[in-house]
Amino acid sequence: PERPTIRSFCIIAHIDHGKSTLADRLMEATGLLTERDKTAQYLDRMDIERERGITIKAQAVRMSYKYDGVTYALNLIDTPGHVDFGYEVSRSLAACEGALLVVDATQGVEAQTLANVYMALDANLEIIPVINKIDLPSADVEGVKKQIEEAVGLDASDALLVSAKTGLGVPDLLEAIILRIPAPHGDVERPVKALIIDSWWDSYKGVISMVRVFSGRLRAGDKIRMMATGKHYDVIDVGAYAPEITSMPELSAGEVGYLVANVKEVVDSKVGDTVAAADDPGAEPLPGFKVVQPMVFAGVFPTDNADYSELRDALAKLTLNDASVTWEPETSVALGFGFRLGFLGLLHMEIIQERLEREYDLDIITTAPSVKYRVYLKDGTETVIDNPAKMPDIGDYEAIEEPMIIARIQLPEEYLGAIIKLCQDRRGIQLDIKYQTSKRVQLTYEMPLAEVVFGFYDQLKSLSRGYASLDYEQGEYRRAELVRVDLLVNGERVDALSLISHRDNAYNRGRDLCIKMKDEIPQQQFEVAIQAAIGSRVIARTTVKALRKNVLAKCYGGDISRKRKLLEKQKRGKRRLKAVGNVEIPQGAFHAILKLD
Ligand code: GTP
Known about the structure:
Binding site for GTP: 16-21, 132-135
Domain Tr-type G: 4-185
GO molecular function, one term: GTP binding
Bound molecules: guanosine-5'-triphosphate
Membrane topology: Peripheral membrane protein
Family: Belongs to the GTP-binding elongation factor family. LepA subfamily. Belongs to the TRAFAC class translation factor GTPase superfamily. Classic translation factor GTPase family. LepA subfamily.
């Protein structure tokens, strides 16, 4: 049966197209936000998220709106907007019946947005195109409508025209949400089944999960079972964010809200898992559950070895909140005792690195990220390696397989030549090339994840003056001719600076890395020799002369996106220097590899 007075939807938008502003406007129009609250964008909870202008965790608010004499509950479910969080996005979408596709009237549709639109279409959501920023003189409503029709394949004739800034068109949008987005279905009388959209740690309530109920009811006192783990819990509290946490007697089929049970750790309340009644052993889980696997790995070391236990405590606390970070102890000859962390992607890594420094006030060095390789050894055994330092010597292995991704790149066609060359240089294999409009092209490439991890995104942005965008999904593992390139500082191998490269690029990578390193390592009282080597063969060398003024001028290409927001906020005043032998190596050196062309 239908739950006619409920609507659940999310907002799909490219960065800066106005998602947060529009969410605020909707909350204001439904009385959830007062003038005083306006400065705070409620959907972005954590400080860092607000500062970086990105949303990491899915959140949901419940608004109440009276239309035609009937009061509706409108659930706005926030979705993370970055490729690193694709699975989380898919679970948020599964909790919705509709999506607002917000497009900046002066910018048009972007590739990252498209990936989410396709996901929303796959999830059978009703998509309402919303053209935002129509107050701007450069707004091109007709052009953007046409683009939505051509690039996305949606009928844009009844797109809503709004200005999230002035509030123009917002009442019509609320009406469209009620009239066009289907009401949820769900039998209140059946045993309970709810989807976990997101979970986080709250110092007062413990683990809080955002859920969408598909059947039955959830009430305090109920006995429930998490289907992925099979563990049983007692429900302590349910309710909704409106926008503050508000306890309610129950959450019933079709509703979205929070659930607090006596769950001790977020890993026990997994995104995508199904909450079932403890006394319903035959329950079938809701579709789509996946255990998320980290794709990118890096070492994290305290700059001062004495801070090791502090770092460990910080990681323990941090992972209370983010079950997608994995960590285990790691020892490096150069850097001492630290941890190897696994992340969903590079942005995720930057976020965690920054939280460790800012929230936990730690001085840390992170090594360059690596992917997970499958290595077939000469003795017939197979091993998995996520740390270049641990890659066996050339000659000790039979073959290596590396993870591939399927990358979708959207770009104005004037940059096509440059981007195709970039993809080829990065060992990409073209799968598809498609003109979406006469001016916009979508390229699909199969590419090694490792190549994308190493500065690909920055290059893509600078070659296209910021106009190309990228999204990707995991692909298969494929064999490649890979070798470990070592970096030697004054003759000593610095294990934390080893990298894995394709054999054909190894020489160039080694040489470029030596050159970059020379800029990164400050002058010391003595000369510092930097060498790159494959096995015992030195392939490149540079020298940092004894004390002379060192100018660090780093330039990034024109980058009109999230990356810029990130860069702007970057690091202030941390020491981030590590003595390796008698040479002081700064953080920048460990990431020099990311800046190679
Ligand atoms: P992220 O949170 O970083 O993903 O961005 P977002 O999509 O949430 O965009 P946000 O709401 O932060 O808006 C981006 C910029 O556009 C802000 O400076 C807004 O003030 C501005 N903006 C949003 N909506 C409008 C609008 O309707 N008209 C005008 N002129 N500016 C707008």
